[in-house]
Amino acid sequence: MKPTKVRNHQIYRASHQTVNKQICAPLSKDLRKKYSRRSARIVTDDSIKIIRGEYKGLTGKVAKISLGTSSIALEGNKKEKSKGEKVDVFIHSSNVIITSLNTSDKWRLKILEKKPKSKIKSMKEEPKKKNDDKSVAKKKNDDKSVAKKKNDDKKDEGK
Questions:
Q1: What per-residue string of b and e applies to 106-138 under the rule 16 or more CB within 10 Å gives b?
Q2: What is the pTM of this model?
Protein backbone atom coordinates (compact mmCIF):
# COMPACT_ATOMS: atom_id res chain seq x y z
CA MET A 1 0.00 0.00 0.00
CA LYS A 2 1.06 3.56 -0.63
CA PRO A 3 2.21 5.57 2.39
CA THR A 4 -0.66 8.07 2.06
CA LYS A 5 -3.19 5.28 2.09
CA VAL A 6 -1.60 3.78 5.22
CA ARG A 7 -1.52 7.19 6.93
CA ASN A 8 -5.18 7.88 6.11
CA HIS A 9 -6.09 4.40 7.34
CA GLN A 10 -4.35 5.16 10.65
CA ILE A 11 -5.95 8.57 11.03
CA TYR A 12 -9.54 7.68 10.20
CA ARG A 13 -9.62 4.35 12.01
CA ALA A 14 -7.72 5.52 15.08
CA SER A 15 -8.98 4.64 18.55
CA HIS A 16 -10.67 7.28 20.69
CA GLN A 17 -7.55 7.49 22.88
CA THR A 18 -5.32 8.28 19.90
CA VAL A 19 -7.74 10.88 18.53
CA ASN A 20 -7.86 12.52 21.97
CA LYS A 21 -4.09 13.01 21.89
CA GLN A 22 -4.39 14.79 18.56
CA ILE A 23 -6.55 17.54 20.10
CA CYS A 24 -3.52 19.05 21.82
CA ALA A 25 -2.07 22.53 21.54
CA PRO A 26 1.11 24.20 22.79
CA LEU A 27 0.96 26.18 26.03
CA SER A 28 1.85 29.87 26.29
CA LYS A 29 5.28 30.75 27.72
CA ASP A 30 4.05 31.54 31.24
CA LEU A 31 2.03 28.29 31.40
CA ARG A 32 5.09 26.39 30.14
CA LYS A 33 7.13 27.67 33.06
CA LYS A 34 4.36 26.97 35.55
CA TYR A 35 3.61 23.38 34.49
CA SER A 36 7.01 22.54 32.91
CA ARG A 37 5.48 21.00 29.79
CA ARG A 38 5.08 22.18 26.22
CA SER A 39 1.53 21.13 25.36
CA ALA A 40 -1.78 20.00 26.82
CA ARG A 41 -5.07 18.60 25.61
CA ILE A 42 -7.66 21.26 24.78
CA VAL A 43 -10.82 21.14 26.91
CA THR A 44 -13.96 23.28 26.76
CA ASP A 45 -13.62 26.59 28.65
CA ASP A 46 -9.86 26.83 27.98
CA SER A 47 -8.82 30.26 26.71
CA ILE A 48 -6.92 30.12 23.44
CA LYS A 49 -5.30 32.45 20.94
CA ILE A 50 -5.30 31.71 17.21
CA ILE A 51 -1.82 32.10 15.72
CA ARG A 52 -2.36 31.02 12.10
CA GLY A 53 -4.98 31.36 9.42
CA GLU A 54 -7.82 33.71 8.56
CA TYR A 55 -8.73 34.39 12.21
CA LYS A 56 -5.15 35.04 13.40
CA GLY A 57 -4.92 37.08 16.61
CA LEU A 58 -8.43 36.20 17.79
CA THR A 59 -8.72 35.08 21.43
CA GLY A 60 -11.57 33.46 23.30
CA LYS A 61 -12.91 30.43 25.15
CA VAL A 62 -13.40 27.02 23.57
CA ALA A 63 -17.10 26.30 23.01
CA LYS A 64 -17.03 22.99 21.09
CA ILE A 65 -14.48 20.34 20.16
CA SER A 66 -14.71 18.17 17.03
CA LEU A 67 -12.79 14.90 17.39
CA GLY A 68 -13.43 13.97 13.77
CA THR A 69 -11.55 16.94 12.34
CA SER A 70 -9.25 17.66 15.33
CA SER A 71 -10.63 21.18 15.47
CA ILE A 72 -12.25 23.56 17.96
CA ALA A 73 -14.88 26.32 17.91
CA LEU A 74 -14.59 29.59 19.85
CA GLU A 75 -17.47 31.23 21.69
CA GLY A 76 -18.99 34.02 19.61
CA ASN A 77 -16.93 33.23 16.48
CA LYS A 78 -19.64 32.44 13.94
CA LYS A 79 -19.90 32.60 10.18
CA GLU A 80 -23.07 33.58 8.35
CA LYS A 81 -24.25 31.26 5.58
CA SER A 82 -26.01 32.41 2.42
CA LYS A 83 -29.45 31.54 3.84
CA GLY A 84 -28.80 33.73 6.88
CA GLU A 85 -28.18 31.08 9.54
CA LYS A 86 -25.04 31.38 11.68
CA VAL A 87 -22.64 28.46 12.02
CA ASP A 88 -19.64 27.90 14.32
CA VAL A 89 -16.23 28.33 12.72
CA PHE A 90 -13.95 25.38 13.51
CA ILE A 91 -10.19 25.97 13.69
CA HIS A 92 -7.63 23.17 13.64
CA SER A 93 -5.96 22.57 17.01
CA SER A 94 -2.45 22.97 15.55
CA ASN A 95 -3.21 26.63 14.77
CA VAL A 96 -3.82 27.77 18.36
CA ILE A 97 -1.96 28.38 21.64
CA ILE A 98 -3.53 27.79 25.06
CA THR A 99 -3.35 31.00 27.11
CA SER A 100 -5.23 29.85 30.23
CA LEU A 101 -6.46 26.46 31.37
CA ASN A 102 -9.83 25.33 32.69
CA THR A 103 -8.84 24.25 36.21
CA SER A 104 -12.22 22.94 37.40
CA ASP A 105 -11.12 19.32 36.82
CA LYS A 106 -8.88 18.15 39.69
CA TRP A 107 -7.71 15.08 37.75
CA ARG A 108 -6.46 17.28 34.88
CA LEU A 109 -4.56 19.54 37.28
CA LYS A 110 -2.92 16.54 38.92
CA ILE A 111 -1.67 15.32 35.52
CA LEU A 112 -0.47 18.79 34.46
CA GLU A 113 1.49 19.31 37.67
CA LYS A 114 3.29 15.97 37.35
CA LYS A 115 6.88 16.61 36.37
CA PRO A 116 8.23 14.60 33.42
CA LYS A 117 10.96 12.13 34.36
CA SER A 118 13.55 13.88 32.23
CA LYS A 119 12.85 17.17 34.05
CA ILE A 120 13.26 15.49 37.44
CA LYS A 121 16.64 14.06 36.43
CA SER A 122 17.87 17.40 35.17
CA MET A 123 16.64 19.13 38.34
CA LYS A 124 18.61 16.65 40.47
CA GLU A 125 21.77 17.19 38.41
CA GLU A 126 21.58 21.02 38.47
CA PRO A 127 22.35 21.45 42.21
CA LYS A 128 25.30 19.07 41.88
CA LYS A 129 26.68 21.07 38.96
CA LYS A 130 26.26 24.34 40.85
CA ASN A 131 28.11 22.91 43.88
CA ASP A 132 30.87 21.57 41.62
CA ASP A 133 31.23 24.96 39.92
CA LYS A 134 31.49 26.71 43.28
CA SER A 135 34.14 24.29 44.54
CA VAL A 136 36.16 24.67 41.32
CA ALA A 137 35.96 28.47 41.64
CA LYS A 138 37.11 28.29 45.27
CA LYS A 139 40.08 26.09 44.31
CA LYS A 140 41.12 28.56 41.61
CA ASN A 141 40.90 31.46 44.07
CA ASP A 142 42.90 29.50 46.65
CA ASP A 143 45.55 28.66 44.03
CA LYS A 144 45.80 32.34 43.03
CA SER A 145 46.17 33.48 46.63
CA VAL A 146 48.87 30.85 47.27
CA ALA A 147 50.73 31.96 44.12
CA LYS A 148 50.52 35.64 45.23
CA LYS A 149 51.92 34.75 48.65
CA LYS A 150 54.86 32.93 47.05
CA ASN A 151 55.56 35.90 44.76
CA ASP A 152 55.39 38.30 47.71
CA ASP A 153 57.78 36.09 49.72
CA LYS A 154 60.27 36.03 46.82
CA LYS A 155 60.12 39.81 46.46
CA ASP A 156 60.68 40.24 50.21
CA GLU A 157 63.74 37.90 50.08
CA GLY A 158 65.22 39.85 47.15
CA LYS A 159 65.09 43.17 49.10
A1: eeeeeebeeeeeeeeeeeeeeeeeeeeeeeeee
A2: 0.66
